[in-house]
């Protein structure tokens, strides 16, 4: 790999954390703001988020949900209503104590999540079984006062969608919870080319106030896991705390069964750390703001620019195409768009025009392909699809290579050091074992996967009988 082209980016194997920081800033995804732990999402980063957001939003609407908007502030008394919920969030909320120079009679919380606001609203609008289900979603920013922060992965303020639904029965709520988990898995696997493990969180790791939390977990290049989307089944806990009741068909008063589910700008961090390489970002075509960047060669020569712009117009019908006709050198442009992870570069110069051809360069493999003009459209569409599936397969292969089995704590520890990644191990279900594993290895339980395997009969920690297989990993 031509190291001299990527002077600005630290090599991944040298320092993965620094590589990540270099990529997010040098590829123009973000800038830092003067508020600690906050980030400015720049146009390129926001275009990427917009694409992801559109894919999620489309699926949310296709599954029958409606978008709404809740206020930014939550009165303290409202947050206090559900005990587990407030305990879970209290350490990381930001408080508003003054309006102008006047101290507020009641402090306000800047929303860390909007459960309680939805609950307050649902109490007002749900009365009869005819009002159910309520399938609401909001796109918003939330604030969590995190101690250590990293762009996209953990920031004081982040963007997300939060779905909040209310149902007549427990079965309906459970069906919704799993349906939305599958929506997240679909976006991650098919748009972002990130393979996921679907499963349930342990009691310790579940959401504050939830009965069940389901998660999609993905594995980064460095072998750490990232929780990439969660879906919660609340049962009637919130409904009881907030008094959300409806009259059923027999005229009896019942509590509603609720769910919530969220997908955040964190997935951009996942995309960077799953697909990126020493040259920078690698963006799967379906998520890429620009899928094809045209770089004219010897563009001062007569006809080159006209030809390049014609190509941009004609190919614009089948792909998201841009052109860099600035007076910067082609070598600079190659480097820049490789760093930005644009899936395909199209080079065209006087000789190509004469030979009725162009050169396509794949970002994922850096392979150069000469394509004749009469086949260009068709070949380009096929190439984008091939890059998409190649990235997915590569990520899946990496995850498989980085997934081990452990039957003792010593083995678990050894595997994590020798080959960081997912460790499959049996667990007895005791919190004490989960905590000991974390203390001894700094790995956390990622999920109890839906696809179970019996890798042993005994708990990896205490050696007692165990029938649940859990994925363990160090995580972001
Ligand atoms: Zn145990």
Automatic annotation (TrEMBL):
It is an enzyme of class 6 (ligase). It catalyses: tRNA(Pro) + L-proline + ATP = L-prolyl-tRNA(Pro) + AMP + diphosphate. CDD domains: ProRS_anticodon_zinc (cd00862), ProRS_core_arch_euk (cd00778). SMART domains: ProRS-C_1. One of its GO terms (biological process) is prolyl-tRNA aminoacylation. One of its GO terms (cellular component) is aminoacyl-tRNA synthetase multienzyme complex. Residues 36-284 form the Aminoacyl-transfer RNA synthetases class-II family profile domain. Residues 366-393 form a coiled coil. It is found in: Cytoplasm. Its EC number is 6.1.1.15. It holds the Pfam family HGTP_anticodon. Keywords: Aminoacyl-tRNA synthetase, ATP-binding, Coiled coil, Cytoplasm, Ligase, Nucleotide-binding, Protein biosynthesis. The keyword Endoplasmic reticulum does not apply. GO terms for molecular function: ATP binding; catalytic activity, acting on a protein; proline-tRNA ligase activity; transferase activity. It comes from the Bacteria. Consists of three domains: the N-terminal catalytic domain, the anticodon-binding domain and the C-terminal extension. Belongs to the class-II aminoacyl-tRNA synthetase family. ProS type 3 subfamily. NCBIfam families: proS_fam_I. Catalyzes the attachment of proline to tRNA(Pro) in a two-step reaction: proline is first activated by ATP to form Pro-AMP and then transferred to the acceptor end of tRNA(Pro). PANTHER family: BIFUNCTIONAL GLUTAMATE_PROLINE--TRNA LIGASE, PROLYL-TRNA SYNTHETASE. Homodimer. This is Proline--tRNA ligase.
């Amino acid at each position: 790999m031509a190291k001299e082209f990527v002077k600005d980016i630290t090599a991944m194997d040298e320092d993965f954390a620094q590589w990540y920081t270099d990529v997010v800033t040098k590829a123009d995804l973000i800038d830092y703001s003067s508020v600690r732990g906050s980030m400015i999402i720049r146009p390129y980063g926001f275009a990427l988020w917009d694409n992801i957001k559109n894919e999620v939003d489309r699926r949310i609407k296709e599954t029958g949900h409606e978008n709404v908007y809740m206020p930014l502030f939550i009165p303290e008394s409202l947050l206090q209503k559900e005990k587990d919920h407030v305990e879970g969030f209290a350490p990381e909320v930001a408080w508003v104590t003054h309006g102008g120079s006047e101290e507020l009679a009641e402090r306000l919380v800047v929303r860390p999540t909007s459960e309680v606001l939805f609950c307050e609203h649902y109490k007002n609008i749900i009365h009869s079984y005819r009002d159910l289900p309520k399938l609401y979603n909001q796109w918003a920013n939330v604030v969590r006062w995190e101690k250590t922060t990293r762009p996209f992965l953990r920031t004081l303020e982040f963007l997300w969608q939060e779905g909040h639904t209310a149902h007549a029965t427990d079965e309906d709520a459970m069906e919704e919870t799993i349906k939305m988990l599958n929506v997240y898995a679909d976006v991650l696997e098919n748009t972002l080319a990130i393979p996921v493990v679907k499963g349930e969180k342990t009691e310790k790791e579940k959401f504050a106030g939830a009965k069940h939390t389901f998660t999609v977990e993905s594995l980064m290049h460095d072998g750490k896991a990232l929780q990439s989307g969660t879906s919660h089944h609340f049962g009637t806990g919130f409904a009881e705390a907030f008094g959300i009741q409806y009259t059923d068909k027999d005229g009896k008063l019942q509590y509603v069964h609720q769910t919530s589910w969220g997908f955040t700008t964190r997935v951009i961090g996942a995309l960077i750390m799953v697909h990126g390489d020493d040259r920078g970002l690698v963006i799967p075509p379906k998520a890429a703001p620009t899928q094809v960047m045209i770089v004219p060669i010897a563009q001062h020569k007569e006809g080159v620019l006209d030809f390049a712009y014609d190509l941009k117009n004609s190919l614009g019908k089948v792909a998201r195409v841009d052109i860099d006709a600035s007076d910067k050198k082609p070598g600079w442009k190659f480097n820049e768009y490789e760093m930005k992870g644009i899936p395909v570069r199209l080079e065209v110069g006087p000789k190509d025009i004469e030979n009725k051809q162009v050169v396509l360069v794949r970002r994922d493999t850096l392979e150069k392909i000469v394509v004749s003009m009469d086949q260009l459209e068709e070949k380009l569409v096929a190439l984008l699809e091939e890059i998409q599936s190649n990235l997915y397969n590569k990520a899946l292969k990496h995850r498989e290579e980085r997934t081990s089995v452990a039957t003792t704590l010593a083995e678990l520890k050894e595997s994590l050091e020798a080959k960081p990644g997912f460790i499959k191990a049996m667990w007895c279900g005791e919190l004490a074992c989960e905590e000991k594993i974390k203390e001894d290895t700094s790995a956390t339980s990622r999920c109890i996967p839906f696809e179970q395997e019996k890798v042993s009969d005994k708990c990896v920690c205490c050696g007692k009988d165990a029938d649940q297989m859990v994925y363990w990993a160090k995580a972001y």
